[in-house]
Design goal:
- By secondary structure, the chain is α/β, with parallel strands linked by helices.
- It has 2 domains: 216 residues, 3-Layer(aba) Sandwich (Rossmann fold), CATH 3.40.50.2300; 134 residues, Response regulator (Rossmann fold, 3-Layer(aba) Sandwich).
- It is 45% helix and 13% strand.
- The protein has 15 helices and 12 strands.
- Helix 10 links the parallel strand 6 and strand 7.
- Helix 2 packs across helix 12.
- The radius of gyration is 25 Å and the shape is globular.
- It starts with a helix and ends in an 8-residue tail after the last helix.
- The relative contact order is 0.14.
């Protein structure tokens, strides 16, 4: 009798364990739902302000997303690999982490060029957000895994010309206007030369290119040419890092108005203007996103991430230009992941992330839901459009802060797209890529 009772007790215990084991297993599985983002950033070197600011903003946004419950219940992890804005080191980072990557953000035009073929072969989408080679916007079967999201350099520089036309009194007033393209002499700096030449022929303005040898600390001879010999009406400041500040000092020295210097958005941060002091006041730059901490999501980051001493950057930089650019990186990464999970479930592969990046639809309403209303323009992609926005704003330095002085300005899309198609087709023929011609 005793043996029978003992057997029943053991059986009953085993039955209970068997019934609750699936609960433990499902909870354990839920806890293991993590998506890792290996990140190629540069917190050191001459371009550290841009890299560190974007890294801090993106990682703070990923941390906030986790506090909000993750992406469709999937928690996020990230690991940085320091590139120092060096292409060879960036390639090493990619090779080290590619087996765990579902997307790569190169944060460098040079690295974008170096990884383009590799990432396509590895079926890992590459996202040169607001940088990189513009013809990748073509997508399709030529650049299936490349996504120059937001506004490419070609679109951006064409929108700059549209803004200059607005300032001059209309496109017909561009004829005879002298524009100096002051650019650092690296692939990033050279990217817009062909487009400016095309726009010059279209609208009749004069363009002259003034290369600056890196790191760009000495630009006095270029400014003598620009102001005294060429007598430019406008200057496009396409420098990067420490070389962005030099033109402001040199312009003050030769008496060129800062209100007529229009910078690329990589020369439009606090770090670019503060070192120039009074010489920066009035300077203009393009922008893809808003600046400042007066967004609900950023206030939430200050309270819950930095308030818990878990911030990924010095709190004084929260809300600055590069930091907010990092927020945009975070939005793109998480919204693409969300799109992929809703379509395919979890885990996600690089191929599935590619599909998601081709079907992004970040609307004004969605930005409001995320707590960043108006931070960036809506962004919608397709398999035949890997860019998705093509708009810019103009901001101006008032001596203490950046102030937005325009609505969203569209690019000359027809002009830009014609060149995108021609360049993409040329690339395909050079690489032996078979493709169906699309206009």
């Amino acid at each position: 009798m005793y043996g029978l009772i003992k057997f029943r007790k053991i059986f009953f215990c085993l039955l209970i364990m068997a019934s609750i084991l699936p609960l433990f297993t499902s909870e354990q599985a839920a806890a293991q739902k993590e998506q890792i983002f290996p990140l190629t950033f540069y917190r050191t070197g001459p371009y550290a302000p841009g890299g560190s600011g974007a890294a801090g903003g993106m990682e703070d946004y990923l941390a906030l997303t986790n506090l909000r419950g993750g992406v469709e219940g999937v928690m996020l992890k990230w690991e940085e690999c320091e590139t120092a804005y060096d292409t060879a080191r960036g390639v090493e980072c990619y090779e080290r982490y590619k087996d765990r990557m579902i997307v790569v953000f190169p944060h460098s035009t040079g690295l974008t060029y170096a990884l383009l073929d590799r990432s396509t072969k590895d079926k890992i989408p590459i996202v040169p957000f607001l940088h990189g080679r513009a013809d990748c916007a073509y997508g399709n079967d030529i650049f299936p895994y490349a996504f120059p999201l937001g506004t490419s350099y070609w679109s951006q520089v064409s929108a700059k010309i549209r803004y200059i036309a607005m300032r001059e009194g209309g496109e017909e007033k561009l004829k005879g206007v002298k524009i100096a393209n002051l650019h650092i002499d690296i692939p990033y700096g050279q990217e817009t030369i062909p487009m400016l030449n095309i726009l010059s022929k279209k609208f009749g303005f004069e363009i002259r290119h003034f290369p600056v040898p890196p790191p760009g600390l000495e630009q006095s001879s270029q400014w003598l040419d620009i102001a005294r010999r060429y007598k430019a009406d406008w200057v496009i400041n396409r420098n990067w890092g420490v070389s962005c500040t030099v033109p402001l000092r040199e312009a003050a020295r030769v008496g060129f108005p800062r209100e007529r210097i229009l910078g690329v958005w990589w020369c439009g941060s606090e770090e670019d203007v503060l070192p120039a002091g009074k010489a920066a006041k009035g300077y203009l730059s393009t922008a893809f996103h808003g600046v400042g901490a007066d967004y609900p999501a950023i206030q939430e980051i200050l309270e819950k991430v930095h308030g818990a001493k878990k911030g990924n950057i010095d709190i004084t930089r929260v809300g600055t230009v590069y930091y907010n650019r990092g927020i945009c990186y975070g939005i793109i990464a998480t919204e693409a992941l969300r799109t992929a999970i809703k379509k395919f479930g979890f885990p996600i592969t690089g191929e599935q992330m590619k599909w998601a990046l081709e079907h992004l639809n970040i609307t004004d309403e969605r930005l409001k839901e995320l707590g960043v209303p108006g931070l960036m323009p809506p962004l919608k992609t397709s398999p035949t459009d890997h860019e998705g926005s093509r708009k810019i704003r103009i901001q101006q330095w008032d001596g203490t802060k950046w102030v937005s002085i325009s609505d969203w300005i569209p690019s000359y899309e027809e002009i830009v797209w014609k060149e995108v198609v021609e360049s993409a087709h040329k690339y395909a023929k050079e690489k032996g890529i078979k493709f169906k011609e699309k206009k």
